[in-house]
Design brief:
Elements: H1 3-17, E1 32-35, E2 40-43, H2 58-72, E3 80-84, H3 90-104, E4 109-114, H4 122-129, E5 135-140, H5 150-161, E6 171-177, H6 192-202, E7 210-214, H7 219-230, H8 239-249, H9 254-267
Parallel strand pairs: 1-4, 3-6, 3-7, 4-5, 5-6
Antiparallel strand pairs: 1-2
Helix pairs in contact: 2-3, 7-9
Length: 273
């Protein structure tokens, strides 16, 4: 057997063993997708509470909802940073605002969540989305850069800043983070190159056209958030018990309110929608 024939047989055998390439993504088939760095998985149902049910963040709701609607309509829209206290509804607001816009036109806007570690593949994703006749909001949840996160930081900064080739108009980014600066500031005794790298990360916040802050809830806000979850179910609650529940968990937040509402619904044999 000639050497060339043997190599052809080996190549053919390896090709048969290799998994088939994934089918191309239908970017108009679903309200949301998850991008893992190579392929996109369609999410047939977007997990979102009604926008009106989110209480205590009226200004943030109005601003993000308006920005999403402008994006869906093809008008100028901002990249958005939602920063602040944990559990105050940053991620829930992103999903709810997109779902609210989709209610009037399901095909106008899709949410694309970026899986952890997939930021360096942004250019490939944006190139693919540029060919679609739909607006996309790229969602990076709970962003934070550690010591080994420089590649991801630079990938995001490059996308926010733009380059020789402009980013497609109907593609914008929304990021949630627990602090506005995204990374913690360190003491000034660090080496110069370390401080330069940290300054690069801190400057990311300045590259978002719309920045929305979320702050810890006071008692009245916490109870209003709780009522937003319980009222649609016809449930009442004892304010003192609700506050004791929050004290036990160490904070008053939207997440804590949701957890207490879940407890009340479970006692009543109901489900939270």
């Amino acid at each position: 057997m000639a050497r060339g024939d043997a190599l052809d047989r080996i190549a053919a055998a390896l090709e048969r063993l290799a998994p088939p390439p994934p089918p191309p993504t239908d970017w108009r088939a679903a309200p949301a997708y998850v991008w893992d760095g190579e392929t996109a998985r369609a999410v047939p149902v977007l997990d979102a509470v009604p926008l009106a049910q989110l209480q205590g963040i009226a200004a943030q709701k109005a601003a993000l909802r308006s920005n999403c609607e402008r994006l869906a309509q093809g008008a100028a829209a901002h990249d958005v940073l939602l920063w602040g206290a944990r559990g105050m509804g940053k991620s829930a607001l992103v999903r709810a605002a997109v779902a609210d816009v989709q209610a009037s036109d399901p095909q106008a806007l899709a949410l694309v969540q970026i899986a952890p570690g997939a930021l360096p593949t942004f250019p490939a994703l944006v190139t693919e989305l540029a060919q679609q006749s739909r607006a996309f909001l790229l969602f990076i949840d709970d962003l934070g850069f550690g010591a080994d996160g420089r590649a991801e930081m630079l990938a995001l900064r490059s996308l926010l800043d733009g380059g020789v080739a402009p980013r497609p108009g109907p593609v914008r980014i929304v990021v949630t983070a627990n602090r506005r600066a995204i990374v913690e500031r360190e003491d000034t005794s660090a080496a110069i190159h370390e401080r330069d790298e940290r300054d690069d990360a801190l400057a990311l916040a300045d590259r978002f056209g719309l920045t929305l802050g979320f702050h810890p809830a006071d008692k009245d806000t916490y109870l209003a958030i709780l009522a937003g979850y319980t009222a649609p179910l016809g449930l009442s609650f004892d304010a003192e018990e609700a506050m004791a529940f929050a004290i036990q968990r160490g904070n008053r937040s939207g997440r804590t309110a949701l957890q207490f509402a879940t407890e009340l619904a479970g006692r009543a044999g109901l489900r939270l929608s």
